Amino acid sequence: MRKIDLNKFKTADHRILRDINEVIVLNIIRERQPVSRVSIAETTGLEEGTISRIIQRFLRQGLVYESGVGASTPAGGRKPRFLHINPTKRCAIGVDIGALETLLALSDFNGHLQQLKRIPNTRNPQQFLLTVADEIQSLIRIAKPYHEFGGVGVSLIGLLDIEEGVILEGENLGWGENIEVGKILKSRLGRDVLIYFENGARLSALGEIWFGTTHLSGFRDIVFVDVSEGVGTGVIINGQLYRGSRNGAGEFGHISIDPQGPPCSCGNRGCLEVFASDLATVNRFMKRTKTGGRSSRSADAFVDMGRIVEMARNGHPQAMETLKETAGFLGFGLAPIIYGLNPEAIVIGGKIAEAWPLVAGTLKSSLASRVSPLFLQNTKIFASTLHVKPCLMGAIALVLAQDFSVPDIL
Fold it and tell me: Which of 1, 49, 146, 338 is least crowded, fewest Cβ atoms below 10 Å from its Cβ?
């Protein structure tokens, strides 16, 4: 049961009920397109006349279009017309500010990328964020053929004030504390450009349920584990992002799995992050491939996580061993997630997900040694299905979701 907030609620008048029905229908079209009116009526239980009125409003607003004709029913009658989301109705820009580089993308209303840019990060946040704003303006100019511009979604690292776009604490960026990202971007973009901010791990979870494949269809309680410069988690409870009281929920990367382990940037020792992050994996690989203080011939002069995954997939034994060791640590780290949240599914994202066939067995075996079978059998574990960085896709979803969200009345 959900407790009603008596300090902030709206009663459900006729207009709100109409809006809820419209959002339900629009979401069905987005997820099942192409889809007919008859199919929508069967799914929702709404009368066909109500569905037709909703669709007519959508057609007038340019939210959907009709294309294609289905077969007649055995009883005869008109052939069904198929409905699609209109990709040119609205566009969105997603920005992922990572530890080493920043990605920017322009998306249509269906979430299909039209432009993708990469820019290296610098140590000067003020100047760098002004450069990001200039790139956003460039994408807005490219977006002119679209009917409407929905806004900008920004993925950030660390503990945030998402209303103002402030990084309260983000050690992985190396920028210090209280970085006013929102204020700096708006100083260049102006107040008319809508900007939405969120933590990258939570946006990865949002991106996965919004744009991922159907293996998560119907799941309402999901945890996304983002393995990159650190280890972050995005938690979805009953279909909604869970942020916690101060937007700090999901910091499972800072749960200690070895109290005697190496120090972590958070001040603790032996955190999951110091064993399972990309940096930790690269460091272990480099140690494995050094002989007498010099790199062995099998190791390249420059190695990052992507290169280790590539070598492992090509059968490089030390790369495979290193990734499996990381998978073992991840298995340890998933145990408190399962016991604490009991999710239906856990999704693993990051470069290590590209080596899933090599590491899945080790991760699940490690997890099984720490979790009761009764708990484990009810939690599915998958690799991310997104080919573009999940938090970038989540930043786009953060903007597009404004049109697909049910009004908050309780």
Answer: 1
CB atoms within 10 A of CB 233: 27
Say yes or no to pLDDT of 27 above 60.
yes
Kindly state whether residue 176 falls inside one of the protein's structural domains: yes
Give the range of the structural domain holding residue 42, as residue numbers without chain letter.
14-85
Nearest residue to 90 (alpha-carbon basis) of 55, 63, 59: 63
How many helices (DSSP H) and strands (DSSP E) are in the chain? 13, 18
Q: What is the pLDDT of residue 294?
A: 41
CA 240 to chain centre: 13
My answer on whether 286 and 343 are in the same domain is yes
Q: Is the pLDDT of residue 118 over 80?
A: yes
Based on the domain organization, do 98 and 180 belong to the same domain? Answer: yes
More confident residue, 169 or 331: 331
Beta carbons of 104 and 140 less than 8 angstroms apart? no
Whether residue 281 sits in one domain with residue 195: no
H-type helices in 143-267, by residue range? 181-189, 200-211
Looking at the structure, do residues 119 and 42 belong to the same domain, yes or no? no
pLDDT at residue number 131? 96
Percentage of the chain surpassing pLDDT 70?
90
Mean per-residue pLDDT for 297-302?
Answer: 52
| Strand pairing category for 380-383 and 345-350 | parallel
In terms of domains, do 369 and 227 share one? yes
Domain containing 41 — which CATH number?
A: 1.10.10.10
DSSP calls for 41-76: HHHH---HHHHHHHHHHHHHHTSEEEEEE-PPBTTB
Structural domains of the chain, count: 3
pTM: 0.88
What does the pLDDT read at residue 84? 97
For the purposes of burial, counting CB atoms within 10 Å of the CB of 109, is it exposed (0-12), middle (13-18) or buried (19 or more)?
A: buried
Higher pLDDT, 145 or 273: 273
For the chain, the C-alpha Rg in angstroms (whole number) is 23
